[in-house]
Design goal:
By secondary structure, the protein is mainly beta. It has two domains: 178 residues, Jelly Rolls, CATH 2.60.120; 178 residues, Jelly Rolls, CATH 2.60.120. The chain has two helices and 27 strands. The strands form two sheets. The protein has a 17-stranded mixed beta sheet that branches. Strands 18, 19, 20, 21, 22, 23, 24, 25, 26 and 27 form a ten-stranded mixed beta sheet that branches.
Length: 404
């Protein structure tokens, strides 16, 4: 009787407790999708010796998978709860990056108070992590690097760059905690920190400064960004640039259906001294929906997305740096991939997938200008424009980032 009574009591108490423990602690894998922006991405699934080469999209990447990009490739990892109810965040992966999906877990049951857990082992390269707003439960994305840990647990946008000497963490918005060798640093919005190999984090540092008065286009067309138009035939269709959005991303929208050459652009005056700037980089997102010219036309000067920075060198001479983007390249003839009438330091234009957002981060423009024998003294202006006959394109997230 006593044994039966004890067993009964144990079941009465233990079964609900066990069920409660299961509900609270049981986890399932998150859903992780890969969208390729450029090049080929190598994905090695756990237990496999051979990598898959992905050129478009790969859904449901399992925990433990390794992802490798070469110098010219780029992709976006998107993380969702297993039932797709929560968008946890995304990681834009740049060239030369190696990542392993160490942990991608979410609670199995909706009533669990636990949060989403995402751990990425990053040994080299650069990622830009975005944590989604309005998730239904807490979340944390942790990056393990050779130098330490980077904890991201607030809505925002973060850049993490890893090499053999250090891990660089830049907070565009939100809060990041860097932990290494018994030390910790909290970097908040518009701050950065560095974790050198074998040392504690250096503390919260001044960020890269965005030299632009407005990186977004909402409410700034015609004010911060002046609008201009040029065309060969005055009677031709002039085209239009307006404010728009794509998948929730605010953008400038360029559209034209002309017979001959035309250009629609946005220009922001800067007149900023850059002689104390050691790094200057352009960041933007570009989307090309249509174009009728092959590449950027016969002279390489008519791309559906173009960025131009005008500057003065130390001799007082006006110079410019140009970068174009195109998607169509179906003509087999000799069409240039760079502007043949533009002086250095302009380089080759970039082919990007059609109807897919492409994230661009320039090399250090100060170094690039110096290699061309030029020493910039001041930035006069930046222009974002579309050129050609028929085109439709969008540009977002324009930042001109300076580091002293």
């Amino acid at each position: 009787m006593t044994t039966a009574f004890v067993t009964c009591c144990a079941l009465i108490i233990g079964v609900p407790l066990g069920a409660q423990y299961l509900i609270v602690n049981s986890e399932v894998e998150q859903k992780v999708d890969l969208d390729v922006g450029a090049g080929t991405i190598l994905v090695t699934r756990p237990g496999r010796a051979v990598s898959d080469g992905v050129v478009d999209r790969l859904a449901d990447i399992p925990e433990g998978s390794r992802i490798q990009t070469d110098d010219g490739s780029q992709a976006t990892l998107s993380f969702y709860s297993s039932n797709n109810h929560d968008s946890i965040g995304s990681a834009q992966i740049y060239g030369g990056t190696a990542i392993r999906l160490t942990t991608i877990r979410s609670p199995r049951f909706a009533s669990s108070p636990r949060g989403h857990r995402t751990v990425l082992d990053m040994t080299a390269g650069r990622v830009r992590v975005s944590i989604s707003p309005g998730t239904s439960r807490p979340l944390a994305i942790t990056l393990q690097t050779p130098q330490g840990l980077v904890l991201l647990d607030q809505m925002g946008s973060y850049s993490v760059e890893v090499n053999g000497q250090e891990t660089q963490v830049t907070v565009r918005e939100g809060q990041a905690t860097a932990l290494a060798n018994g030390g910790a640093t909290v970097a908040k919005t518009n701050q950065r920190t560095v974790m050198p190999t074998g040392r504690q984090p250096l503390g919260a540092l001044p960020p890269e400064r965005n030299l632009l008065a407005s990186d977004g286009f909402a409410g700034s067309l015609g004010t911060v960004w002046s609008v201009y138009q040029n065309q060969y035939d005055p009677a031709d269709q002039p085209g239009l640039v307006d404010e728009s959005s794509s998948r929730g991303r605010p953008a400038a929208h360029f559209i034209r259906d002309g017979r001959d050459w035309g250009q629609i652009g946005l220009r922001q005056e800067l007149n900023r001294d850059v002689r104390d700037i050691r790094e200057l980089r352009l960041h933007l997102a570009a989307l090309i929906l249509q174009q009728d010219l092959t590449k950027c036309g016969s002279l390489g000067s008519e791309c559906p997305v173009m960025a131009k920075i005008e500057f003065l060198d130390t001799s007082g001479t006006r110079r410019e740096w140009l970068q174009g983007f195109y998607s169509d390249s179906n003509f087999l003839g000799d069409v240039p991939t760079s502007c043949v009438t533009c002086p250095p330091p302009t380089g080759p234009h970039i082919r990007i997938p059609k109807a897919t957002w492409y994230i661009y981060d320039s090399p250090n423009l100060i170094d690039q200008m110096n290699r061309a024998g030029l020493t910039p003294a001041s930035i006069i202006s930046i222009s974002i424009y579309a050129s050609g006959h028929l085109f439709e394109s969008m540009v977002s997230e324009v930042e001109l980032l300076a580091l002293e």
